[in-house]
Design brief:
The chain starts with a helix and ends in a 5-residue tail after the last helix. The longest helix is centred in the N-terminal third of the chain and has 10 residues. It has a domain of about 80 residues. The chain is elongated. Helix content is about 60%, strand content about 0%. It contains 18 helices and no strands. α4 packs parallel to α6. With about 240 residues, the protein is an all-alpha fold.
Length: about 240
């Protein structure tokens, strides 16, 4: 047996200390067959390091999508060398953790993968995509999602266009309007509109995030809600 073969057998052996195997599994210059040998290592950290290694063979990454531990599956889905095929495989697994992991990749994703996320039955990937994508087209598409939790993540995005914030300021769900009300990028006419929102939670978010704006606080000093009115009066130095 040659020295290289002996080295491969030695490194992949569970008799070798876990620290040695962990270090070897993360090496980007490791031979493919050495990396393959770590795919079923009993130590979770070894498999996690392997899944995060950009040199990990694609077929091994695909296999690691089925690993028993979610962190290994997560690293495999987010591996920088993973492409469209692996991302689509991750979405087809009906695994919420994998869907979340793929959605977090945002602008790294192929359009076919984005389209699959947009119609995926689990919302988690779309929520993460809303936070990580900088594409106005994708954010507009996500703003039409039937799940309000996806729409509120769109409102949380720093890349959300101002015109889209205007639309979301009139969303049927108060939770979405609450997030919009907290945005520092809202045009003044939208802020003024939200001052009269039917939800006290929305009005509270308006004043809470603009306590230094005297005009806004004065507009809410007689608000019917105790919390909103109290915050506005305290900000102005008035008795509650």
């Amino acid at each position: 047996m040659g020295d290289d073969a002996k080295s491969r057998v030695s490194l992949s052996s569970n008799a070798v200390g876990a620290d040695v195997r962990r270090a070897a599994a993360r090496r980007p210059d490791a031979a493919a067959d050495v990396l393959r040998s770590f795919a079923d290592d009993r130590d979770r950290q070894v498999r996690e390091n392997l899944a995060a290694n950009p040199a990990c063979p694609q077929d091994v990454l695909l296999a690691l999508l089925d690993d028993a531990h979610w962190r290994v599956r997560w690293e495999a889905a987010q591996n920088v060398s993973a492409g469209r095929a692996l991302h689509l495989a991750a979405l087809s697994a009906a695994d919420g953790q994998l869907v979340w992991a793929v959605g977090q990749l945002g602008d790294r994703l192929d359009r076919e993968v984005v389209d699959e996320l947009l119609r995926h039955p689990l919302r988690h990937g779309r929520e993460q995509l809303a936070l990580t994508s900088t594409s106005a087209d994708i954010l507009w598409a996500l703003a039409e999602d039937t799940d309000h939790r996806v729409r509120l993540h769109v409102a949380m995005s720093d890349a959300c266009p101002v015109d889209l914030l205007r639309v979301l300021a009139r969303d049927r769900r108060k939770e979405v309007r609450q997030v919009v009300a907290a945005s520092s990028r809202l045009p003044r006419d939208v802020v003024d509109e939200l001052l009269h929102d039917r939800s006290a939670d929305v009005r509270w978010n308006v004043v809470c995030h603009r306590s230094a704006d005297g005009d806004i606080c004065r507009a809410l000093v007689d608000d019917p809600d105790d919390t909103v009115r109290g915050h506005a009066r305290v900000a102005l130095g008035l008795p509650v």
